[in-house]
């Protein structure tokens, strides 16, 4: 019997998390994508702490009134800005089991434009 879409994503997510881990110097940029919004957080897995987070539900991004792909790019730039204020310049990207296209790719490109290296 075939896996559901969510089951397939969770299997991929576990496979990705086996190899990707975040530290204080190089945190993990975790992406969560819902049907309506997109969320990103920088996580230090060694200490179990979230360093910073951004989402398309933030007031400045929500006020921009753009489509979902453009909002994802703004979230990427926002997380890069918050990361630079926290002293982070290099990350490891965790796509969370989602395919690297569309909103996830747009978020990654926005983070790169904001100055994050990965």
UniProtKB/TrEMBL annotation:
It comes from the Bacteria. The keyword ATP-binding does not apply. One of its GO terms (biological process) is translation. InterPro entries: Ribosomal_L18, Ribosomal_uL18_bac-type, Ribosomal_uL18_bac/plant/anim. One of its GO terms (cellular component) is cytosolic large ribosomal subunit. GO terms for molecular function: 5S rRNA binding; structural constituent of ribosome. Keywords: Ribonucleoprotein, Ribosomal protein, RNA-binding, rRNA-binding. CDD domains: Ribosomal_L18_L5e (cd00432). This is one of the proteins that bind and probably mediate the attachment of the 5S RNA into the large ribosomal subunit, where it forms part of the central protuberance. PANTHER family: 39S RIBOSOMAL PROTEIN L18, MITOCHONDRIAL, LARGE RIBOSOMAL SUBUNIT PROTEIN UL18M. Part of the 50S ribosomal subunit; part of the 5S rRNA/L5/L18/L25 subcomplex. Contacts the 5S and 23S rRNAs. This is Large ribosomal subunit protein uL18.
């Amino acid at each position: 019997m075939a896996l559901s879409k969510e089951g397939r994503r969770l299997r991929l997510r576990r496979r990705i998390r086996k190899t990707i881990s975040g530290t204080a110097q190089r945190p993990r940029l975790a992406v969560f994508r819902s049907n309506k919004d997109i969320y990103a957080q920088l996580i230090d897995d060694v200490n179990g702490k979230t360093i910073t987070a951004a989402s398309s539900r933030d007031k400045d991004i929500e006020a921009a009134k753009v489509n979902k792909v453009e909002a994802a790019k703004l979230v990427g730039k926002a997380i890069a800005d918050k990361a630079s204020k926290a002293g982070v310049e290099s990350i490891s990207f965790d796509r969370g089991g989602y395919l690297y296209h569309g909103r996830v790719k747009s978020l990654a490109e926005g983070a790169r434009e904001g100055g994050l290296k990965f």
